[in-house]
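Reviewers of the previous submission asked for a worked example of the structure-prediction workflow described in the proposal, so we include one complete record here. The input consisted solely of the amino acid sequence. No template or homolog information was supplied to the procedure at any stage.
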Amino acid sequence: MESNRQMKFRMLVLVLVSFFTKAYASDIFPKAQRVAWSSFNFKSMLTWSPKPTNYSYTVEFSEPSQDRQRTPHCIRTMETECDLTAELKNLKASYKADILSEPMRGVSLDLVEFPHVTSERFSPYYDTGIGRPEFKIEVNNDERKTTLLVTDVPTALFNNLNERLNIRDVFGDDLLYKVIYRKAKSTGKKEMTSKSSTIELTDLDQGVSYCFNIQVYLPSRALDKQHGQLSHIQCSPEDDASFFEEYGIGVIVGAIFIIILAMTTIIIVIVMCCRRRKQPKNTGKEGLPLNGV
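From that input alone, the workflow returned the following structure tokens.
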């Protein structure tokens, strides 16, 4: 009977000690706030606030059902960001991170657990933002085919040979390009998708200038993360024949006829005016009628 009471008393003491210890630790080491992932072209950063004064932060990250890991440059750091690009090796995994508020380097404190905050889940493959692609336009000599040569966007990732990877290396067959195009003198737009970085268009009017935008399209992602940034607009050169194709031969011939008619009319009017000016004017006696004899 007495032993049960002692056990309950000890448990109560442990709970109270743990509670006040955590409260004490939270006062000395404030928890991180505004924890967020930021990732662009697979450069993945974890950010938070506020800037520490007399304490530091340590970042731990893990995949589901895996042990927590640390990266050396984010242990007891005074910074409010941690670059985890090289640490998140399983790109399709869903990671979470814990930010611990701890003593500064060289300071020890006998605490079992420090205040910490857990981030939302993050997957590099499904969440990183993709930048705008660059591309060139090639028009065949016969103007029957226009080719767009897209440069795959480079990433912040490297392979085992320390070679930089591009998004084609990472996404493989999941990567598509969406092309948005229109005639240079029109507002109507068309769209198409391509699995290749070499995009051929054969349904364009010959000799007409077209303007193009391209963006990465990843249909395997959530709807709000399927598209990368839109490229800068580029237009193909316009052929001289496009003027005739746009207005038609009949309209052009009619316009030429009207111009010639107008010029002829102007010339006739000018000639008549010049003749009138050159006719002599009858003045003085020559202009009076003859008197009878």
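The chain has five helices and 16 strands. We consider this example representative of the routine output the project will generate in years two and three.
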